[in-house]
Amino acid sequence: MLPLDVPLLVTFLDLARTGSFTRTAARVNRTQSAVSAQIRRLEAMLGVRLFERSTRSVALTPAGERLVPHATAVVEAAAALAARFRNGEVAGDVRLGCPEDVAGTDLPTILADFAAAHPRVRLHVRCDLTLHLVEQFEAGAFDLILIKQDPQRILPGARLLRHEPLAWVGPAGLAGAAPPDPVPLVLAPAPCVYRARALEALGRAGHGVDVVYASSSETGQIAAVRAGLGMTVLPARRVPADLRMARDGWPPLPEAAICLLSAARPTGAVEAFARYAEARLGEPGLP
Predict the structure, then answer these.
(1) What domain range is 229 assigned to?
(2) 85, 117, 151: which is the final residue of a domain?
(3) Which of 9, 119, 214, 229 has the most CB atoms within 10 Å of its CB?
(4) Residues 13, 68: one domain?
(5) In the predicted model, is pLDDT for residue 85 greater than 70?
(6) Contact 121, 272 (CB under 8 A)
(7) 206, exposed or middle or buried, with CB in 10 Å at 0-12, 13-18, 19+?
(8) Are residues 158 and 265 in the same domain?
(9) Looking at the domain assignment, is residue 24 inside a domain?
(10) pLDDT tens digits for range 100-137
């Protein structure tokens, strides 16, 4: 089998991200027919169908979903290799703010890989609540911030990276039964999207609530839940193995969103990191 061309994988990842041949063609500077030809060539080389196409949409097949992380790794490795030898390599400082839970899960690998690809960029990261991050960003303390938002009320100028399905999480005794009255909750202080989601969902379902433990630290919240103090709300993809997701009898939680807010006139280093974060955190199919 012939080696896979990096441009084919770049086009594949862009189409997976946008779900649109039109937008992908504009982004990779090719015609729609050329993009279609690239995808057909990649499918022929791999011997699988990567996309389900209709007159209105383009969606990844299961094989396409499996290819995404591998294609991402190849493209990022190629970019890192080129950056090592390219004249005029991007340099400068990037002041990044993000919530603690994002910093403790998704961000470390992204930061390490970006630093390896761009050794002349200095990263400065600070964690805080979304409200404080926005206030400090507006005061000029950050070049860009990752923030949690209500998908229906995203801050002007912020880019939606991914939707975040949420889950009720607690120790087996609480999570394995119907909600008590009142429901003991372990949450972040207001304002917090996860907190608002929890209170709104329980209120609509007619349940009383008792916030027994409030901490701006997700680590502190999880420790309190492990101690049996109450239930909390976490992204469904990040439920600790020793805790349980509650389902039966618990009201559904509206999803949250992870967004990126960047300075109006970013430097080359800030632009490079913003693109990198979008590629690593971005949800396939979003424009």
Answers:
(1) 166-254
(2) 85
(3) 9
(4) yes
(5) no
(6) yes
(7) exposed
(8) yes
(9) yes
(10) 877 777 788 888 888 888 888 999 999 888 888 999 99
Q: Say if residue 133 is in the same domain as residue 15.
A: no
pTM above 0.70, yes or no: no
Strands 244-246 and 92-98: unpaired
On whether residue 1 sits in a domain, the answer given is no
Burial class (CB in 10 A: 0-12, 13-18, 19+), 286: middle
Peptide bond before residue 182 is cis, with ω within 30 degrees of 0: yes
Lowest mean pLDDT among 39-43, 115-119, 242-246, 251-255: 115-119
Residue 171 and residue 250 in one domain: yes
Which burial class, exposed, middle or buried, applies to 254 when counting CB atoms under 10 A from its CB (0-12, 13-18, 19+)?
middle
Q: How many CB atoms lie within 10 A of CB 102?
A: 21
Beta-carbon contacts of residue 110 (< 8 Å; ≥ 6 apart): 276, 277, 280, 281
Question: In terms of DSSP bridges, do strands 166-170 and 232-235 run parallel, antiparallel, or are they unpaired?
Answer: antiparallel
**Is 230 strand, coil or helix?**
coil
CATH number of the domain to which 242 belongs = 3.40.190.10
In a domain, 286, yes or no: no
pLDDT value of position 109: 85
Residue given tokens 């990276």 in the structure block = 161
In this structure, are 155 and 219 located in the same domain?
no
The structure tokens listed for 144 are: 């860009």
First to last CA, the chain: 33
